[in-house]
Design brief:
7 strands; single chain; mainly beta; four-stranded antiparallel sheet
Length: 186
């Protein structure tokens, strides 16, 4: 029942996202946020020469999420979108713009350890992307970072895993979160 309820939740989220994104018309904020499949940049530098660091001063943590997405033709999902949401101490989204923030993404399969705790196992994707507005952190706003299923190297029989997301802000800080319900297959 847990997996079934999860599937229902994601279907409802996708329907709501389609409604919200579709109803914004010309006000949508679609932009080319995507992940590079060439590998993650260790210690990535932020390209934000004129970014206002004050808008990031209230950030205390990151809340990451992923959702299956279509961006090509066809009935199947093309991949996932990763949504890094910068939050304050009240767990509210920080609304920001005017900067390009590098985002490191790692996606793993999972396994049970000797104590029957779920832990990360095999790395199936590692790359970087960027977000340019707070709306990329909200799965209902149509942004996010695209990670195609074709760029993941998922072992047979694996369907869900963990996504570890690290955002680098203009004030030199990094924030990380692990989303533990990432779909690894369409």
């Amino acid at each position: 029942m847990g997996v079934g309820a999860l599937v229902v939740f994601f279907v409802i989220c996708a329907i709501i996202a389609a409604f919200v994104y579709g109803s914004t018309g010309s006000e949508s904020t679609a932009h080319p946020a995507s992940a590079s499949v060439s590998g993650a940049a260790a210690g990535a530098t932020v390209s934000h020469a004129s970014a206002n660091t004050a808008q990031f001063s209230k950030v205390t943590h990151l809340s990451a999420s992923t959702i299956q997405a279509h961006w090509g033709s066809g009935a199947n999902y093309d991949g996932i979108t990763v949504h890094p949401d910068l939050r304050d101490s009240s767990d509210e989204t920080i609304e920001w713009s005017g900067a390009s923030l590098p985002v490191d993404i790692q996606i793993y399969t999972t396994k049970l350890d000797n104590d029957f705790k779920e832990v990360k196992d095999k790395l199936v994707f590692q790359g970087t992307g960027e977000i340019t507005t707070w709306k990329d952190g909200n799965m209902f706003m149509g942004g996010g970072i695209k990670v195609p299923y074709s760029s993941m190297q998922v072992p047979a029989g694996e369907h869900y895993g963990w996504t570890i997301v690290t955002v680098h802000t203009p004030d030199g800080k990094t924030y990380a979160d692990t989303y533990q319900i990432t779909s690894l297959t369409p």
